[in-house]
Design goal:
single chain; alpha+beta; 3 domains; 5 helices; 9 strands; F-box domain-containing protein
Length: 223
């Protein structure tokens, strides 16, 4: 089989079911340096898997613990629950084996109160995984520090998150009252001396960079 050109082999592997690709990848991952055929096979399978993830626009999802628990109980909920954020694969590097995911919806933001420093309870997973992180598995938990401006959080060598922190001032109820003016306030708002405003802290994850090894966590096939 290895006498075939590389492009032919890659084309053949592109028709393999995902489960078969993952099984083959697992079998060749422990190849020794002298096992050139297994090493080459491992390389080809990785290239096909990287291309498939990009072509199919796999999703990395950030969600609340309660939503995540519901999904663990019923995988069908993945398509029914609106997550905090959903990022799709837009590119990959075949040499470093890293993939880049970007936000689908520019309006997807976490809203935090002035008292919050970190968003304490975010869960991360890939929607295409066979096996999700267990509820008590800390590997699927992340915390992001709020600091105004563009930020980068490197969880480890396999997971890097790019996010943006902004402040937004929202008018309070009395400021939106059609009976109030700058000089006169209605009876409902008469005792408020100055217009008040609600300061919102917003956090938006706009990109995630992950290694193929990180994605493989949920693609384990039991022998």
């Amino acid at each position: 089989m290895f006498t075939l050109p590389a492009d032919v082999l890659l084309h053949i592997f592109s028709f393999f079911p995902l489960s078969d690709l993952c099984h083959l990848l697992k079998k060749t991952s422990q190849a020794r340096p002298e096992e050139q055929s297994r090493l080459l096979l491992n390389f080809y399978v990785k290239q096909v898997l990287l291309a498939r993830i990009k072509h199919e626009a796999w999703d990395i999802v950030l969600d609340t613990p309660s939503n995540y628990f519901a999904i663990l109980c019923n995988r069908d909920m993945i398509t029914k629950i609106r997550p905090i954020a959903r990022l799709s694969c837009v590119a990959y590097n075949s040499t470093s084996e890293y993939l880049r995911f970007e936000i689908n919806d520019d309006e997807s933001c976490f809203e935090m109160t002035d008292d919050e420093i970190e968003f304490q309870s975010m869960r991360i997973y890939c929607a295409q995984w066979f096996n999700l992180f267990k509820e008590d598995d800390r590997s699927g938990q992340i915390k992001l520090l709020w600091r105004e401006g563009d930020q980068t959080k490197q969880i480890d060598d396999d997971l890097i998150i790019g996010y943006r922190c902004t402040k937004k001032v929202a008018a309070s109820a009395e400021d939106n009252c059609r009976f109030c003016s700058s000089n006169n306030r209605c009876n409902k708002h008469a005792f408020i001396s100055t217009p008040s405003a609600l300061k919102q802290r917003l956090l938006q994850v706009h990109s995630i960079r992950v290694s193929l090894d990180w994605l493989r966590q949920g693609l384990t096939i039991q022998d």
